[in-house]
Amino acid sequence: MPQPQATPPWHPEQLAARLPFLRRRARLTAATRAFFASRGYAEAETPALVPVPGMEVHLRAFRSEFRPHLGAGRATTLWLRTSPELALKRLLVGGAGKVFELARVWRNGECSPRHAPEFTMLEWYRPGATLSDFMDETEQFVRSVLPATVAHGNVTTTVSTTFERLTMAEAFSRHAHGLDILATVDPATAEGDGPALHAAARRAGLGLPPGLGWEDAFFHLLLTHIEPAIGRDRPTFLTHWPAPQAALARRDPGDPRAALRFELFAAGLELANAFDELTDPAEQRLRFTRDVEARKAEAGEEGWEVDEDFLAALDHGMPAGSGIALGFDRLAMLASGAERIDQVLWLPSAVS
User: Fold this and answer.
1) Which pTM does this prediction carry?
2) Angle of helix 214-221 versus helix 194-203 axis, rounded to 10
């Protein structure tokens, strides 16, 4: 027998069920703009259709194509951005100062109660700010827009208290049987040693699937032992990530095995990812080149080349500072009490 058709998300009954969450989201949006305006940030709007959607190896992008029809231009492949990060940093180079964007972004293949292929990312960048400054500001922002207590699933978190600050080394020592994660990183090359991590896990009595490289083994341990233990009673900043996970962050001058990066967790949700921004174009080129090679090595995945225009901007000179990307839909889930991301989307994706 044919399966009954699901009621479409525009149907009055469906929309009525989402309206309490959506109205709370609208208030959250207004409060967010007010917070950043009060601190002298300019709201930017950057292109969604770009030649390079982002440099993260494991993110998949939606491909498009420009076909000349009216006026100038040439046929070229374009992508829907996975983040406004590279564009906003170009504005820092140009002298825009403190900027933020409520950006629509796209990530192909992501669909779950916490993920949507099209969603909103709140990003802000502040020249001269340290990672500690950004933890202060992020904590103030989250406290200002969320209720004192939030819940998701079976986790209830008090937002009105001081947020926890926990280095990755401390987190592994505390929650992964004392495993020294930074001892598995080469300080000279900033690369992880897979066999060393497997050996450390065995000594700590932690199981790892055989054959995993350093990165996959690290994330297996992170997802199994660290993330379930943090951001529960109170929000947690997980800081100083191993250098192989630096992405666009500077390495820690005090310990080159670590990167000046943090993620924020609350009520069991990963909310945000922040960097003390890397401004060295030579080091960034090396990282981008490795990323492109890693993406090409994944069978069947189309990709893009190094973002030469962004590297030219870095070469021109980007001011030192920090930046953060925060999942705005997840923030709306916590603000409204929604259990699923589609509840805080006015019209959920067709694949949701």
Assistant:
1) 0.95
2) 30
